[in-house]
Amino acid sequence: MSEQATPWSDEFLLGYGPMDDIHHEFVELVHAMQVVGDEVFPVLLDRFAAHAEHHFAEEAAWMSAGNFPARDCHVEEHEKVMASVREVQQMVAAGNIEVGRRLAVALEDWFPGHATYMDSALAQWMVKRSTGGVPLVLKRTVTT
């Protein structure tokens, strides 16, 4: 299990509120899958799968409604992630918790790039359609 789990950070903000909210939940669930006990992991994985189904369907609906140019590529990437999640759910149900933990690490690694390159374009598209401008994102600086 990853000792370096990445919780939510303002660095993930894209400036489209509904997307930022659903991304926050995604990041928190992935983090939880990395730190929760084995006995709870299968339930949490199922909760994550339900979240991801809703999350990806929501983004697909935004893309379809707005005739987003990169829709097919974006949806295809979501479908590949869901195929992996479903496959891992079957393995976890058979008792292989470790493969589920590896999925959580892979999702943690995947998300920042996906958000930066694919979701940020969608966020800009959605904000431009609704306001005529681009998102303005104010990010807090965390000091230690």
From TrEMBL:
Domain Hemerythrin-like: 19-124
Alphabetized SUPFAM superfamilies for the sequence: Hemerythrin-like
Tree of life domain: Bacteria
UniProt cross-references to Pfam families, sorted A to Z: Hemerythrin
Keywords for this protein: Iron, Metal-binding
Family to which the UniProt record says this protein belongs: Belongs to the hemerythrin family.
PANTHER family: BACTERIOHEMERYTHRIN
Protein name: Hemerythrin
Source organism: Aromatoleum toluvorans
